[in-house]
Amino acid sequence: MEILSNFAVFEGCDGSGTTTQLALLEKRLGLPAKNQAAPRFFPTFEPTRGPAGLLIRRALKKEIVLLPDTLARLFAADRTEHLYASGGVLAHTGAGELVVSDRYVLSSLVYQGIECGEELPAALNAAFPAPELLVFFDLDPVIARERLQSRAALEIYEYLEFQTLVRERYHALLPACRESGSRVEIIDASKRPEEVAEEVWSALQKMPIFE
Length: 211
Ligand code: TYD
Known about the structure:
By secondary structure, this protein is α/β, with parallel strands linked by helices. The protein is built from 9 helices and 5 strands. The chain has a single domain (3-210), classed as 3-Layer(aba) Sandwich (Rossmann fold), CATH 3.40.50.300. It starts with a strand and ends in a 6-residue tail after the last helix.
């Protein structure tokens, strides 16, 4: 499988801290004085804020109802724009920047795999390049649920039974990610955010872009 250089992704169940960790990384890499050797950084996320991503977010918030297969197709369409549109992921990796995305293909294989069966998301996502590094934030869904409780409203996938399946499916699919050529780092996300951030940092530092 094609590996996209300079590209890393964060994956994990809802409440595992991927978004928090991307923000902490942005802080760290956004301090050029302290990090003169650091590459230029482009943090990004899926679902995106593009048209398909916005539709997905409305469905996640239960504002509109879509069939699981429709949602699987929208995630793949959103990803196509995310990667290939002007100013997208490929433009940045190609310019020698470090791109880190909060969620990518594996989210679809896990979440839509549970809802639609594995065939459709596998077919829809087969052509996307694999990331050089995949950081999986591993967290007990019970702890993740406690973290999510403080949010105003829960989204369609944010209930314990589903998140338990999500964690199992991530663990089941990580070996295949390794076989596809991505470096996979599993991080214990129950630690304090600062400790997790240190582990994320050392995982990233092994990317050739930091050499
Ligand atoms: P999330 O990163 O939790 O966004 P936010 O922090 O803004 O709530 O992602 C939103 C949800 O979308 C999350 O439950 C995972 C789900 N998702 C999929 O089901 N498939 C996908 O391909 C992606 C990228 C996300």
